[in-house]
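Service request form, structural biology core

Requester: graduate student, group of Dr. S.
Request type: structure prediction, single chain
Budget code: on file
Notes: please return the result as structure tokens.

Sequence provided:
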Amino acid sequence: MKTSFDRGDLGRLIAFAHFQDGSRMNRLLARALRDWWLPVLLGALFSFPTQAQNFTIRRINPPATGIDQIRVRPGDQVEILGSGLSVVTQVRFNLSPATFFPGSTRLVALVPAGATIGPLSLSDGFGEFFSTDFNFQVSPRITGFARNIPAPNSPADALRGAPGNSVLFTGENFVDPSDPSFTSAVYFPSSLGGYVQAQAEFVSMTSMQVKVPASAVSGSPAVVNPAGDVIAAGRFFLQPLVSGFEPARARVGDTITLRGVSLLGTTEVRFGAVSVIPNQVTATNVTVTVPPLTQSVPLTLVSPGGSFLTASSMLLLPRINSFTPIGGAPGAVVTLDGDGLSGSTGVWFGGVAAARFTNVSPARVTAVVPAGGFAGPITLTTANGTNETSAPFFVAPTVTGFTPAQAKPGVSIVLQGSNFTNVSRVRFESGIDAVFAVTASNRISVTVPLGAVTGVVRVTNPGGEGASGVSFVVTQPNPLILGFAPGSGAAGTTVRITGDNLGTATQVRFNGIAAGTFTIESDASILTSVPAGATSGKVSVVTPLGTALSQTDFLVGSTADLVVTGQALPTAPVVGEEVAVTLQVENRGPLNSAGAVLSVGFPGATLMEAEASQGVFDVFGTTVVFSPGTLARNASLVANLRLRVNSTATVTVTAQADSDTPDLNLGDNRTVLTLRPVRPTVEVVRLVDGSVELRWPSTPAGLIIEEAPGVTGPWQTTLGTPENTPTGRRLVLLPTRDERVYRLRLP
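Core staff response, request fulfilled:
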């Protein structure tokens, strides 16, 4: 868009003004007389230069074409091209001065925040010397809005309304008087999503009145004109509508969500008469925490747009917050405290119904522990739902018997009964506590303690104490060996034996061989040494009350003896055939072999599969390393490999066993297996009908039959489908007089 003006046209402007009094051109003339005529006259008097001014003006950021070049928002950039622009001291959009970046032939001005619809003008040190003969159209600006029909009762009432009410918006840039097509419209947030346009009742430059549309909901309205749009800083509120809430059943302290429309600005939710401030509010959701209540209540949502009462009540679920006591015997009275307990219909202890219960208040229920009740949560039900305690109620234990019925100290027995949950103490007659482990709610594993005497056994849990109806019989204690250290050694090695009831020992034996001397350190410890001639086996201690035998063997000696043996089948495989290799590492003792390793090398062959009877293995190229860990004396490791031979070269399989324990004889720690592969051959048989039958062995790798007119080739795959036979493969070819040579090849 280009606008030109020459100061030489001043006379024509003056003449034109006589016929346009009161018009926009007359106002331009007035500015020209004020801003240009005097500078021109002064320029003539003082010889200031004058020149014609010719301008091109357009919006450049964001870029635009056509009519959009004069439609701007605050912050847009407008470019002014011309000559002599270095004298410009001010750029205005209508009456609002703009920030600009000067230049002699190009200016870039930023549309100011307060710009209004009107011309763009340029000024120098003497005043305005140029103004466009068209308006720059600016996006709307909202300075306020309020309901005016019906008239509000208060400032807060002016910001809410209903569909059909009239709302007055004030601001700038609502219309352009010079352009009838340039006008503004108001949009309200819609219940259907997005915005819905309001019906305009009147529009002027600085105000407009609209009717609230039927589908409008609470939110910030927007004003739109062809130059842009703006969302109001505040909100207009409509009557809220709650479509539902979830969950429909809740406990005190739970969070519920109310859903609907026009929920913005919600200030409170009333549970009956109890008011609660919401946790979170959006246009369609309000979350709130259920306050302390005694019964189910409807909900009332209060917002600046009004209030809404739900048709249905929120059902209050029962919750038990605490109970006392934490345990007791059948017949004991338990008090349950919580909320929502009105109208209780049942109380259960570990799944067994209470003998009777009473609703003392909406927050308290008392119940009687039933006979046969079990330890577990207490469950309470009302018409609205069920709740159970997070902690169990403990019923006093009962002891109905023991297995066996008599035993010596140190022996483990099993108590039978009920309510053994959370048992804290098991006592034998004379008040001696026992070591125990609860294995089930009706079983306890107990070790008869030293010093126990015949009598009842008592069991205690948080619910109380229960005693056996019959006595447990404690018999005389036998000696007991719990262990020895070290676990191996040669003759003369010092060994400490630990156990119980060893103080009366008369003899110590190593696999039946009596130790020459021994020292009783205490009732639980004996110090001795391995006698000459002893062999690996159990350690025993002889006392007047009996003989104790160790659970594990003492190993006599200082070395182990690993022996490696093996076999391979077949030893003369056809090339491509698989060979099964079986290796065994036996530890002939007398000690366990710690850190045992078996390394198997098979250069020239391919490993197809490997497995071991214990431990793990790793593959390193043509070597497999088996790691069984500790190989006990008289134990064996069996390793199996499947190898495939790929050529006629001899394959040597070498197996070597090693360990961290000294070996008695290293010569038998190694074995070598030799494989001598043979080349597969094809047998050619001429049949009676003149056809040719080819026969060759079968291998897992498979063999390809090829033919050629001579031994020098060229070779090609023989056509036909081979058949399997009990002895290999077979292919029958049609009769031919041509001489052919056949061979086998690996894939």
